[in-house]
Amino acid sequence: MKNIIYLLSIILIVSCSGDKKDEQKNDKNKEVKKAEIVKGNLKSLEYNFNKGQTFKYRLNTVLNNFQSVQTDTLIKANMSQNSTYVFNFKVLDVDKQNIATISLTPVSIYVKSNINGQTALYDSRVLYSLREKAMFADYEALKNRSYKVKVSSFGEVLDIFDADRIINEIWNLQGIKDSLSKDQKNMFKRNFVLSGLAPITEQLFRTVTKEKVGINSTWEQKYPSNLGSLNITNTASFKILHFYKEKDDSIAKIQASLSTAWTGNNTATEQGVTYTFSNPNISGSGEIYYNLAKKLVQRSQTKINSETEVTMKGLDASKKEVKATKKEKIDTVNKLELL
Q1: CB atoms within 10 A of CB 240
Q2: Cβ(11)–Cβ(260) under 8 Å?
Q3: How large is the angle between the packed helices 164-174 and 182-191, nearest 10 degrees?
Q4: Rounded to whole angstroms, how far apart are CA atoms 102 and 146?
Q5: Is the per-residue pLDDT at 20 higher than 80?
Q6: CA 324 to CA 313: how far, in whole Å?
Q7: What is the mean pLDDT of residues 5-31?
Q8: Is there a contact between 218 and 36 (Cβ–Cβ < 8 Å)?
Q9: Which of 11, 218, 254, 332 is most exposed by smallest CB count within 10 Å?
Q10: Burial zone of 23 (CB within 10 Å; 0-12 exposed, 13-18 middle, 19+ buried)
C-alpha cells in the first residue's frame, strides 16, 4: 500500500517503486495525452537547464496516517509527520538531448513525528550525540552531502545516482559497514535510493507536457499500478487557469486533479493467506505555479487523500481460521517553493 500512495503522490507532484531500470523505462513509456489548446498565446512549460545554473527549493510534507486492525480485538495506530527539506541545486551538465545532470545537496532538514503520542524530532542544526546520530542516521548522513540526478527538459527524473557518500555514512553511524556482505550492501544501496532518495527527489520536479499551452489548455498523464490483483489506472489531469505577472516574472497557474479506475479480481492468495481488497477511495488535487521566465516551478501545493481496506484470512498453527481486517486512511500535503 505504501507503493500505491507513493505512486499517487508523484503523479500530482509531477517517485517510484520497483527496479530503477524499470522506472526509467516506465517514465519513457507513460502515457501523456496531447495538450488541448483552447485560447491565448502559446507558452512552453519545458525546463531550460544550463550548465553552472544554481537554484534552491524548500519542500514541506505533512503526512497523517490512521490505521486500525480488527481481529478478536481492535487495534488502532495514528502517525503524523511534518518534514521540511531545503535543497541546493547545481546543474553540472546538459547533453545534446537536453538531459541535465544535477547535483542535489540537502542543506537543511527538519522532521517532527508523532506515533501514538510518542514524539521524535530531528533538526539538522542540532549537534547530536553518537547514540542520537545512530538513531537519526538517514537524516544525519543526508545533510550537506550531495547526490546526483538526471532530469529531462520535461521534468522526468531518469536516474538517481552517486549516493555512496551518504550510504557509507549511514553504515558508519550505525556501525554495520563491516558486518554486511556484498549482496547486502548492494540491496541496501538499491533500497535506499528507491525508498529514501526517490520519494523526495521526485517531488522536486514536475513532469510537464511537451506541447505548448495557452489559457484553458488541458492535458493528462496516466500511470499504471496495482493493488493485490487489482489493476489500477491513475489519471492526473492538468489545466492552465491563467497567466499573470508576479514581480517581473510571468507565471502560469496550473490546476491539477487525480482520478483512478480499477479492474481485475479484488482477491489474491499468497503463502496460504487470502487477501480481499475493498475498492480504494483515492483522490488528489493541487495547484502548480510555473515561472515562465525562470523556466522553473515557482511553487506548488498538492494533496492526496486515500482510504483503503483489506481483509486477510488464513490458518494459524492449530489449523484454526484467523481473520483480520485492516483499514487505513492517509492524507498528504506537499508544498514546494523556489527560494
Answers
A1: 24
A2: no
A3: 110
A4: 10
A5: no
A6: 7
A7: 42
A8: yes
A9: 218
A10: buried
